[in-house]
Amino acid sequence: MGILHAVLVAPFVDIASNPRFLAEVLIGGVASGLMYSLVALGFVLIFKASGVFNFAQGVMVLFAALNLVGLMDLGVPVPVALVLTMAIMVALAFAIERVVLRPLVNQEHIILFMATIGLNFFLEGFGEMIWGANVKKLDVGIPDRSFITAGIQMNQLELIAAVTAGILVAVLAVFFQRTRIGRALRAVADDHEAALSIGIPLKTIWVVVWSVAGLVAIVAGIMWGAKSGVQFSLSLIALKALPVLILGGFTSVPGAIVGGLIIGVGEKIGEVYWGPLVGGAIENWFAYVVALAFLLFRPQGLYGERIIERV
Amino acid sequence: MTGAPAARPLLEVDGISVAFGAVQALQRVSMEVGRGEIVAIIGPNGAGKTSLINVVSGFYHPYEGRILFDGQNRTDFKPYDVAALGIARTFQNVALFKGMTVLDNIMTGRLLKMRGSFVLDALYWGPAKRQELAHRAFVEKIIDFLEIQAIRKTVAARLPYGLQKRVELARALAAEPALLLLDEPMAGMNIEEKEDMCRFILDVHDEFGTTIALVEHDMSVVMDVSDRVVVLDYGRKIAEGTPDEVRKDPAVIDAYLGVPHE
């Protein structure tokens, strides 16, 4: 009885007794969820347009942040450093297309996946070779102060991250669904040969999509870097993006956001209200348990394309 | 603009050779496809038929010889450049966008015809909307024409093979090609589906005046639809002519039909 009461009743009594605190927890959850979404978006873009799970996406976030911080440490003003970082990420997209993707056209997806693992290690080593491996502080001038509105404590950085993620998603969703480039991207993801035969230049499409993924990585890098510093562990947030993808579906831009929100809010609420029961640290594994449940019951995710297998 | 220009064939394949390592897929093959013709390329398995289609559509490049389209040399063109010239194709093993609906599949066929800016496309406003609607109207015409109205919202992967082939044809037609390349359009079909496909090929030819080159394994099918037949064997052209001429050609009978058992 005591256990049931502690699990099923007491937390809800807590929730009901202090709605302001609940609001704070929810806002915190939404904010961190959108931060996950930012990383997950990069995966979705590349998966949608090439069917490749880009193992290197987390490192691309790190790489973008390293370049930005490195340039700023050299005394380059923020806007210039930002533009230069964008140029670097676009150049990276060109290089990846030329060196990694082009020789592997029409290969199995697993082979392209292996190639991105290689890319992962290369970028990690290359970034640290140039900019060093020590932890750096990223400050592009986004205010990071907490304030209280209507009795609820909020953080400026988290709010800005949330708004940015929202805008990014809206733009990308429209881009994929409505534009002819978007349709071309989906075509390329489905069948390389057929896409070529109707006049879609594969090279251009890949450069576009990896560039966009690179730009999304910059945004994620800025937000995460500002939150927790630029260091190797930044690339590990990719691990948190994985359950987000499983929830939302690998091919859905809105799915990445909804998945991120569910995970972000879920783990914060779990941690705050149920954490004390098991001695805390729910936040660390909550996402993976949810992902596991989804794999059992809805493997394509909430918005993913249904997996059809002819038998 | 009548007379002289029309005399030039639409497609001229001039002495092309293709090799994969030591395997000689095509040896100095020459052929032509005249405007408004239906030309069939036939031959036994491994004769180089699909290689020839792949060369014309830019997937393979010959190490010797030239390909002229509309009198212009385009031997080294990439597949998407070839598509831009107005050459559309289908594949032997159906290459549809399996995750998309039939309608979306056919709409992708019109990508090259679409113009416009990101921003307007995204807002689906003004010219972008008008453009989308105009293309949609054309696509609906093709859908009616090929009698696939009932499946337009179906995801391509769920369709039976015969219908997938028809959708692939629809996507190729959506590009309003000057030259349509069909790689074994009837492979793996039952008799009824084959007859349908034959009828569609002839209808397309009549309705749109499309020039068609098709590769086929099934001799009987080819004889009914084509104006001219080119026969390949072991990468060489062994005969060319009207269906009747080819049917009587001893080289063809030896290589392709085998010696008649009587």
Task: Outline the secondary-structure elements.
The complex is a heterodimer of chains A (311) and B (262).
Chain A: H1 2-17, H2 19-50, H3 57-73, H4 78-101, H5 109-131, E1 146-149, E2 152-155, H6 156-178, H7 180-190, H8 192-197, H9 202-228, H10 237-248, H11 253-274, H12 282-297
Antiparallel strand pairs in A: 1-2
Helix pairs in contact in A: 2-6, 2-7, 2-9, 2-10, 2-11, 3-4, 3-5, 3-9, 4-9, 6-7, 6-9, 10-11, 10-12, 11-12
Chain B: H1 4-7, E1 11-20, E2 23-33, E3 38-42, H2 49-56, E4 64-69, E5 72-73, H3 79-85, E6 87-89, H4 102-108, H5 118-123, H6 127-145, H7 161-174, E7 179-183, H8 191-208, E8 211-216, H9 219-225, E9 228-233, E10 236-241, H10 243-248, H11 250-257
Parallel strand pairs in B: 3-8, 3-9, 6-7, 7-8
Antiparallel strand pairs in B: 1-2, 1-4, 4-5, 9-10
Please, could you describe this protein's structure?
The complex is a heterodimer of chains A (311) and B (262). Chain A has helices at residues 2-17, 19-50, 57-73, 78-101, 109-131, 156-178, 180-190, 192-197, 202-228, 237-248, 253-274, 282-297, and strands at 146-149, 152-155. Chain A has 311 residues and is mainly alpha-helical. Chain A has a single domain (19-297), classed as ABC transporter involved in vitamin B12 uptake, BtuC (Orthogonal Bundle), CATH 1.10.3470. A two-stranded antiparallel ribbon of chain A has the order 1-2. The longest helix of chain A is centred in the first third of the chain and has 32 residues, at 19-50. With 262 residues, chain B is α/β, with parallel strands linked by helices. Chain B has two domains: 1-86 and 177-262, Rossmann fold (3-Layer(aba) Sandwich), CATH 3.40.50; 101-175, no CATH class. Helices cover 40% and strands 23% of the residues of chain B. In chain B, a hairpin with a 2-residue loop joins strand 1 and strand 2. The longest helix of chain B has 19 residues, at 127-145. The termini of chain B are far apart. The mean pLDDT of chain B is 83. Classes of the chains: A mainly alpha (311), B alpha/beta (262). The A-B interface holds A 171, 174-175, 178-181, 183-184, 186-187, 189-191, 193-202, 251, 305-306, 308, 310 and B 57, 59, 78-80, 83-84, 88-89, 91, 95-100, 104, 107-109, 111-112, 114, 116, 118, 121-122, 124, 155, 157-158, 171-172, 175.
